[in-house]
Amino acid sequence: MMVDSIITLANNKNYLLLMESSILDDSYFLGVLLDDNMEPTVDYVVLKKVEKDGVVCAQQINNLNTLTQLLEEYGSEYAENYN
Amino acid sequence: MNTDWKNIDAASLNNLTLGEAEKLFGLEPNFTEEELKKVRNALSRQYHPDLNPDSGNIMSKINAVYDILKNEIKNRRNAEQNNANGGATDTSSTSSDSTREEPEAENINDNAGATDNSTSENTADEPEVENLNDNAGATDNSASENTADEPEVENLNDNAGATDNSTSENAADEPEVENLNDNAGTTDNSTSENTADEPEAENLNDNAGAANNEPRNENSNITWEDVNRIGVENLTLDDARRLFNLEEDFTENDLIDAYNRLDRIYNPMNFPIGSEEAEKNRATMNSIYGVYTILRRNLINRQNVQESPTREDTTNQSTQVSMNPTNEKADNSRNDNGDENSQNIPSADNEKNDGQTDRPKDAPTHNEKPALSTGPTVGDQIASNDTTPDPEPIPVIKSIPAKIMDHRKQILIIIGIIALAIAISQAINLTLVAQMARNGNLWHLTAGVAEKAALHAKNINLTSKLIALKSSYDSLSGVWTIAGQKLLTGNLQAILRGISAGSGILGLSCLTAGLIKKKSAAYKEYKKNIRQLIRDFNDLSYDEAINQINSLRENINNSNELSDREKQLLLNQLKKAEKLNRQFEDIDQGEELEGGMSL
To answer: Does residue B279 sit within a domain?
Structure first.
């Protein structure tokens, strides 16, 4: 999983990964769901990269504390990269 | 009133008496609320950073003084009410006379949770404690320390990594921390239980109220600098309350007042954008937000528990609370580093290791749904989603690089961040994110989130709405307010136009490139003029701005180079500009400000 890539999950959903951030050793991606035409939708998710039995998996994050932390991270990263 | 605000030392405001505050505002001792607001509004117009970018942190000084005076009004009102009720009340907290003469004593009595002895001993031995108990004391105290030791703060922040190695390393560099520990000479009158339970703590943290029959962490004297260093996640609830100068049974209003007080002092938006002070206060403001979150959660948990826990229960619970579910590693590493590292701010894990306060299994934490619910508010209900477990990981079966144009990606990221912010704000508490956005990292998103929060907050309570509105006023230019309002419509192009209008800040002129059809050169020129006019609003009077808008409107209507569609679009933008101008005028007249400040 890396920024600027489209991942396809086992449930056949495609996400474009926009930003990456880390908390401790975990990587979290801000992603947007793509529709059938591979166009971005309005559904945004935060996906955590996890390895399960050697397989790379994406876990959607709903925990508010984590999301809040990540929001700040993304905000600063955006400010650094685009301001 | 000839106050030279520029030369007033912000730190000196910490211990300002009522009389001095009155002098600074040029008020007579029996000033009325109207007089106070009048002076405040006049000063706001003169020094508000939005209107006077060179004013530095003058506005925060004014706000600090205003707080003192406003509290006096409140105290008077309370006293009147109490007198009307004929109740024998705690006159120390309501009498304006006592406030005038002994501000510290007033608040110490207010906070006297245990015995008079303890308060008097605190007062005698520890000026810091006086400050902590003073209304804005905790904040102001640390504010002055931060100001005085700014380079150290930076160092501390740099080292504020995961473990408390940094604690011990930095300890030598921090006079505040040393002082705290130096005061350990004070006779330790804490109960033998405490001593027995916490041998490591015997010589530590005795300074602040050693006479109290309270657990050690209840007496810790922690500054924002300490919080920046160790991280909010390692704070106990008691520390959090102390930092906000709140009592155990604090109410939502107490919490909001305390937050606003701190916010006025530390908000980086009070300083010129990109300035050193703004950067330094950003870390503190983030900590303040973190502590606010802890306290807010505690408040919600308290409200949701049918039977209020006893003081002792609360203390025990509070020492366990950890906001960050991931801080286990940090705590472990701290313990590995020895006892010294945990001296000032005991964490849940440390205390467990001390073997004295094993966390009750049913004690709610920030990540757990309260066991008993007594009709939570809408916000609380949503907040309970916090407990929703993250779904199972789904295998990634394919990953291919994507080609995406920079400006498009930028748009997606902005929308993504806004969407995330809104989702969180809806889930936790709509006002929180608005305030967080103010704090720093997300300042550029404030308008949208704050306005969104404000409108949604209508459904929750008026207080939230006012805070959000005030938040948006404090930190936004009108352009961003428009962006926020457009955000509400859900109209993507409108959002982008709103954001694009603020491109002076974000540099997002490219945002619209791919989304708006190619327009004529004349259209672009007019649009540029409108944008420039909006940027100039701060420098123009209401009438001047209206004149310019009308002039532009006339030109647009008479132009032969513009298509009808383009004319329509430009006239719409002028309408928005006109509306924005009216908002500025309202703000100028203090209407929004007073609404927000009335909290």
So the answer is: yes
Mark yes or no for CB contact A8/B412 under 8 Å: no
Q: Count other C-beta atoms under 10 Å from residue B497's C-beta.
A: 22
Domain that holds residue A76: 6-82
Among B323, B396, B409, the residue with its CB nearest the CB of A7 is B396
Q: Is A19 within a domain?
A: yes
pLDDT of residue B268: 67
What are residue A52's DSSP bridge partners?
A: A55
Are residue B503 and residue B430 in the same domain, yes or no? Answer: yes
To which residue do tokens 């530095």 refer?
B56
Confirm whether A42 is domain-assigned. yes
Provide the domain count of chain A.
Answer: 1
Residue ranges of B 264-323 with Cβ closer than 8 A to chain A: 286, 293, 323
Tell me how close the Cα of A37 comes to any Cα of chain B, in angstroms: 14
Please name every residue paired with A47 in a beta bridge, in sequence order, or none if there are none: A29, A60
B88 lies within 8 A of chain A by CB: no
Boundary (domain end) residue, out of B318, B344, B370: B344
DSSP string, B294-354: HHHHHHHHHHH-SSPPPHHHHHHHHTT--S-TTTHHHHHHHHHT-GGGGSSS--HHHHHHH
- pLDDT tens digits along B506-516: 333 333 333 33
The interface predicted TM-score (ipTM) is 0.85
* Within-domain flag for B379: no
